[in-house]
Amino acid sequence: MASASSFILFILQACACLFFYNIGAQANKTFSAIFSFGDSILDTGMNNNLLSGRCNYPPYGRDFPGKVATGRFCNGKNPTDLIAEALGIKDTVPAYLKPDLQSDDLLTGVGFASGGSGIDPLTSSTLGVVAMSQQLQYFKDYIGKLKGIAGEEKAKAIIANSLVLMSAGNNDIGVSYNAGMRKLEYTFPAYCAQLVTWSTTFLEQLYALGARRFGVLSTVAFGCEPSARLTGGSACSMAANLGAQMYNNLLKAGIASLQSKHPDAKLVFFDIFTPLVNIASNPQQFGFQNANSGCCGGTSICLPFSPFTCPDASTYVFWDFVHPTEKTYRIIVSDVLNKTLSSFS
């Protein structure tokens, strides 16, 4: 009976996800393009030509269209793709450095996010990935190319009517603070405040380049990641999640302050923390069997052609030691869009 109830609940939630996506597709029409900045949550392949921070090898991409590893830290699509898909913009979002980028790709948006990057300048240099300052420069280069294709006025309209996503703070807290030197310079609350200052400054720079509609992601739930859990199926780490919540609350306040400063813009906080906690704490209710380890990698990153990858990623909340599976992302994205789309009207 319990098994049947869980199955029925799973079906109802799947229908709800589809319902929310239909709402998103109908509500779009005003988003001309999509752009993503920040870290691996949104990275669609910017690291493929780097010496570090790469994941353009199997089993990554195992469930992506064409079953190819594209540099996404997932078994399939990530939030950049899923939000673009839900809003009817495009099915997948290419990275700006994709070698065979087409004119149509430029007109509807590209990804600048780089796995391992952070809003703290120290983070990207530590991990050897594309810093957010460089992502901003790439965006400036992109605008120049867009003007060449569409003309200056149309290019301005595309940028102003696009949805700009940003995800930062995950690597900054995990790498530069918890495992790095920043804790010698800042208390944790002070570091979170500094991250928010850097983040709002970055958003101001995007605003100055013509962007007007922003979806700013919270951090993930650090304490629920396989890397933070003990063996034996323990619960999420409350201490790690409290740290994430502290930063997310400050970020939300910083975005609200920036919104007051720029009433012609729409700056919306995308809370991915809460739905991920709900899923990881109650996996069976969402149709998952495992929330304690990654489908590949277990409690580490996926190794090339790993023979230990699970046969069905849809039964796992996490793909590797920190990144959710596509199925998890789909549930999160549905939750976020259902709660925030009206804010852009």
Automatic annotation (TrEMBL):
UniProt keyword terms in alphabetical order: Signal
Coiled-coil parts of chain: none
Gene3D superfamilies cross-referenced by the UniProt entry: SGNH hydrolase (3.40.50.1110)
SUPFAM superfamilies for the chain: SGNH hydrolase (SSF52266)
Origin superkingdom: Eukaryota
GO CC annotation terms, alphabetical: extracellular region
Pfam families, alphabetized: Lipase_GDSL
GO molecular function terms attached to this record: hydrolase activity, acting on ester bonds
Signal peptide region: 1-27
InterPro entries in the record: GDSL, GDSL_lipolytic_enzyme, SGNH_hydro_sf, SGNH_plant_lipase-like
Recorded family membership: Belongs to the 'GDSL' lipolytic enzyme family.
Protein name as it appears in the record: Uncharacterized protein
Source organism: Quercus lobata (Valley oak)
